[in-house]
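input
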Amino acid sequence: MAIIINEKEWLQERLNGIGGSEAAAIIGKNPYMNNQELWELKVGLKEHEDIGNKPCVKYGKEAEAPLRELFKLDFPKYVVHYKDFDLIRNPKHPFILSTLDGRLIEQLTGRKGILEVKTTEILRSMQKEKWNNGIPDNYYIQVLWQLLTAPWAEFTVLKAQLKYQYSGEVRTEAKHYFIERSEVQEDIDYLEEAGIKFWEHVENRTRPPLILPEL
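output
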């Protein structure tokens, strides 16, 4: 496994596989990209857009560390380990990769897990409803993909901070979702199969059938 020591190397490694934030496009669950657009990126027909200066991206990047520290305070039953550019790959299918926001150890049991930190700005009531009903599809797929890259992980905790404007005030709401591998294994297996088929299209440079995102 490559040891990532800086952002440039991390970005280069991500080109050689599919990351967690991209995985939803494979099965039509990414509202920002369809599977053919992802394929074009992976075969080099398109270049990744630099979104690092977008306010929402900058906010999420800068908020991650304090939100991780807050998670430690709120859930002391977990030991949290973090390192920059913690990119991992599935041992059987190296194109399946993820960058972890944290690794967890449940103190009483020794079980290992993953911490995923999300920030999102709620602009429409439909967005809020999706979070109230569970995890939005694209983020759920990312969680599954991370579990797929990490056979050692028995669970994931998704910490989400929702930010929205209410009567001129900025308000935030924290949500925590606890996902056990044993309860989502069928979905993980389905995603693995879909990912393998998609990557075959990348290796063979054959455009996959279009799957439009569900908006």
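quick obs: The chain has six helices and seven strands.
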